[in-house]
Amino acid sequence: MRRKIIVIYAKYPDFKTHVRGLAKLIKEDAGNIQRELKRLEKVGFLISERQGNTKVYSTNKQFPIFKELQSIVLKSQRPTQKRVTG
Fold this sequence. Notes:
Strand order of the largest sheet: 1-3-2
Number of helices: 4
CATH architecture: Orthogonal Bundle
Number of strands: 3
Structural class: alpha+beta
Number of domains: 1
Largest sheet: 3 strands, antiparallel
CATH superfamily: Winged helix-like DNA-binding domain superfamily/Winged helix DNA-binding domain
């Protein structure tokens, strides 16, 4: 589940959502997602802001290894091409 969250936020750095929105998107339990989001915020990958009673999470583009992480995610998301041998 952590991988899914990192992929979404690295692939779409302007993406902002709350826990329930993300739970719906990746089809995971909101409680588990909330724990992961808090962990990712604690290490600095995500930042959060309050919008009314809701906490909205977004990518911290200033995270020291954000560009490298984004590059890895984008490379891993590309369709693999089969080599033709012969």
